[in-house]
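Input.
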Amino acid sequence: MRASLIQFAVDPDESADSRRLRAASLVREQRGADLVVLPELWPVGAFAFEEFDAAAEPLAGPTYEAMAKAASDAGVWLHAGSIVQRGEGSEGGGGGGGGELYNTSLVFSPSGELAATYRKIHRFGFDAGEAVLMTAGQELTTIPLPGLTAGLATCYDLRFPELFRGLVDAGAGLFVVPAGWPARRRAHWRLFAQARAVENQAYLLACGTAGTHAGVEQAGHSMVVDPWGEVLAEAGPGEEVLTVELDPAKVAETREQFPALKDRRLGVAPPRA
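Output.
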């Protein structure tokens, strides 16, 4: 499985429409990959809190349309990062108007069909920012990809290992984590990415942004971690495309060679049917 992570730069002087065109072009350049991943909230910027309401889109809005077409043109599975989604039945959209907002990830099939969505469960900000502006998601999301089942998480979710255990119990052997992680906590980014991979014996694709969001420098350093916790590839701080070959068989091999997951005693899910 060939995976390409697009560490996209968010420039506050670039319009959302221009970003969509540029992101779509970068996706099309990844023809030949099996899976392409974009970062969290790249159409607006993960820390541009004051712009969330005005930038909110319906699910099938402009980012959806641009990314569906790009996935189809490139013939790839596309995790299109996430958008500020205005919930169904809410007033307005694309220009304010109230209603619940969600940090929603979109995954498209190689034919451009929407294959999965994930609403971020753990919102960052404590008593400010995303934590008060957005509604928390409630459901874990997995999706079968060629060779592996992927479990979806977003940015701050990395700090909550129980989410990843739940994804493993749902069959995940690969985690896809788009993010807008700040540079000042870059060490945590690397630590959590490796920990979530090695403790669950799964691949982890961590795709962050470059640039600056509302004055917050982004960490960059997107990375691919294997089931033993080894970093197979890591980007630098700027805009970059990271492409890595994954061996789906390595997940089962790792779990067989070192069957630590079988020794779980707390929070063990019942056997899958």
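The first strand starts at residue 2 and ends at 7.
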